[in-house]
TrEMBL record:
<keyword id="KW-0812">Transmembrane</keyword>
<protein>
    <submittedName>
        <fullName>Type II secretion system protein</fullName>
    </submittedName>
</protein>
<keyword id="KW-1133">Transmembrane helix</keyword>
<feature type="transmembrane region" description="Helical">
    <location>
        <begin position="6"/>
        <end position="26"/>
    </location>
</feature>
<keyword id="KW-0472">Membrane</keyword>
<dbReference type="InterPro" id="IPR012902">
    <property type="entry name" value="N_methyl_site"/>
</dbReference>
């Protein structure tokens, strides 16, 4: 008599159940991993927009903010009586050297830029905040400089930048004293993923005392 080894019915059923669970779970795991990657890419897009927002704020407030032979921005007159004609200071300014002050040229000579955007005289160089107005760039670019989707198969996010004069009821856009920077992130379907904004005021810069030793 030959002895034969074989699965019992209960072992066979148990094996079928385990294999079924594995087959069903794999697609769900892949889907979860895919969603996780997509979420990470959205976060990267948000970080990129936040970084760009901070970068824009490092530029001078306006094309006309910096007088000749100076590297520091000054307050642009936004009306005839905006600054004191003699001291070239606004109310609240400290009348000391190296503190914030208004331009020597008053409102009749120099005013904030009327049309915000990249000027032809910039020669391709961004030199003030509103140069970034109406800029739209893709966030994922490969090593050759060609725009592609992230990882070759995910959404291709786009960053749209808008710079405008802010309106706060009391401080109207017509006064041209505040600029608002909006950055909108959109996916390949044109849906908004996130939108960030910040403000910058026409307050000039301070200089610093320097000593040589």
């Amino acid at each position: 008599m030959v002895r034969r080894y074989a699965f019992t019915m209960i072992e066979l059923i148990f094996a079928i159940v385990v294999i079924s669970i594995t087959v069903i779970s794999l697609p769900m795991m892949n889907q979860a991993i895919s969603k996780g990657i997509d979420t990470n890419l959205v976060q990267e897009a948000i970080f990129a927009s936040s970084g760009k927002l901070n970068e824009i704020l490092t530029y001078q407030w306006d094309e006309n903010s910096t007088p000749n032979n100076s590297i520091y921005s000054q307050v642009i007159w936004t009306s005839v009586n905006d600054c004191n004609q003699t001291t070239k200071r606004r109310s609240g300014h400290i009348f000391e050297q190296k503190h914030r002050r208004c331009l020597d040229n008053n409102f009749s000579v120099v005013q904030p830029t009327a049309v915000l955007g990249f000027e032809a005289t910039d020669n391709g160089i961004y030199n003030d905040m509103d140069d970034f107005n109406n800029v739209s760039v893709h966030l994922f670019i490969d090593n050759s400089g060609v725009v592609t989707s992230a990882e070759g198969y995910k959404n291709n996010y786009t960053m749209e930048i808008n710079v405008s004069y802010a309106d706060f009821n009391e401080t109207t856009a017509a006064s041209k004293n505040m600029k608002r920077v909006d950055i909108t992130i959109k996916n390949s379907d044109g849906n908004i993923t996130t939108k960030l904004h910040t403000y910058s005021a026409n307050i000039g810069e301070v200089d610093y005392a320097k000593r040589s030793f």
